[in-house]
Amino acid sequence: MYRILLVDDEILVRDAIKENIDWKGIDCELVGDCENGKEAVEFIKKHPVDIVLTDILMPYMDGMELSSFLHDNYPEIVIVIFSGFGEFEYAKKAIKYGVSEYLLKPVTATELTEVIEKMKEKVEQQRLEKTKMDVLAQNSEKYRKNKQMIRSKNIEALVNCTTDVNASIERLEDMGIDISAAAYRVALFDIDLYSGMYQLDTEKQQESALMAFVLFNISDEIVTRENAGIAYQEGSNRVCILFRENWSRNFTVKTKEICLEIQQKTKEVMGFDVSMGIGKWVKKPEELVQSHDMAERTLQYRYLLGGNLLIDMEEQHPVQEIAIDENLSELKEAMKTGQKEQVDQILYDIETAIRQALMEKSRACMYLQQVIRTMDNACEDVSADMDRIREGRDELLRQVTDQKFFEDACKVVQKHTDRIFAILSEMNTSSSERQARLAIDYIQKNYMEPDLSLNSICSYLNISTSYFSTIFKDETGETFTEALIRTRMEKAKELLENTTMKNYEIAEKVGFSDPHYFGISFKKMTGYTPTEYAREKRK
């Protein structure tokens, strides 16, 4: 028999549902009906319920608030929402709170009966899962009470220095465990599916502890066979190995081989991936915490590299800084000139450098944010619609930092890149207009170069001089030479007005190798010699 609670503030709706459903025929019992979420909460606290049928809009506590309460406090209860309000926002919240069905009023008796039949199957599945977990939990509890658990607790205390090292060693000796060795190192194993990368509900947390027990058994069997150290559980869901070097200079290689065998055996037996970090060698038991902490830090690399890792910190040398200034400069130019394939390659090179550096997540995200800012600068240089480019910027940056894996964060950046190219393409339906803007930008940045010429700018744009001369004149009303001279003269005027530099120094600053020619050009454009202009403006 399945127990159902009906919640709706309209008494006519409640009466209609009560009278038109053959409850006994579908093996159900309507255990109660409430007119709002507040009444329903009080009822559920006192009576067992399997399925809740609830409206959304109700006084005191609405259907969303009730769903949230049930999600947090009674996750085993199956929720069905029906309402006359079909807005998408309601549906999204319903998904968030684990609502199983979302029906729009009016709901027929046939339709509701079909939904209840489906919900019964879900309740039954949950009952079976609970029975399974209870059996596993009982077996696990037996383990917690045995000698292995005590051993694990004592070794964990030794490795993490949570108790006096000598006292821990004595307790282990009393258990017949001798940890003396020439050197030590700690390996730490974490099941990817149940790691901190994911939010775990209560059931998953219990399941993770049981799977860790299986991982421990596999590890213990292999380490004992190789006489390589001691396997132990750390907390309820991690497994560690205290490796002891007594007999081989090549034991560093051996420890990695053992960890790889455990990883492969776990995948073969249980079908799940395990990430493993191996800390450095230390000489004394009191230094074990250093090896342990180093092994634990490797698990953060799952963000960059994904799961199923095996990292030996004797081989890896993480860094926190990489040089990408040149990549960013190339990225900016490729964006401005519309070279999509080159942009994609540069992004790939930057992403690869970040992965190889094995840096922390916050640092990796910082580099991706630099990439986004560089794209903005490129768009500004070609006079793009920056309001449109920056639309949703806060959400974009949040998405980059919220991703569980670096690969997904890179996909967010790539999607943003594709969007920018689409906007630029839409804006620049006239290629001549775009090339003219790029040419002006190029002049603005390189006017101080004496050898700046029509050939150099055409080489930059990858077009012929004759074609460029035509489109530039059509789009700007000036020839290239006129635009260059005008730009140089404007910069020269700024220097004459605001500095005490000599005329020959200004000539050099604005790209004239011949000060005499600079003076002639300046007077031709302004009607003044540089000296006359400076005297007039500085009065």
TrEMBL record:
Signal peptide: none annotated. It comes from the Bacteria. The modification 4-aspartylphosphate is found at D55. Residues 3-120 form the Response regulatory domain. GO terms for biological process: phosphorelay signal transduction system. One of its GO terms (cellular component) is cytoplasm. Keywords: Cytoplasm, DNA-binding, Phosphoprotein, Transcription, Transcription regulation, Two-component regulatory system. It holds the Pfam family Response_reg. SMART domains: HTH_ARAC, REC. Residues 437-536 form the HTH araC/xylS-type domain. May play the central regulatory role in sporulation. It may be an element of the effector pathway responsible for the activation of sporulation genes in response to nutritional stress. Spo0A may act in concert with spo0H (a sigma factor) to control the expression of some genes that are critical to the sporulation process. This is Stage 0 sporulation protein A homolog.
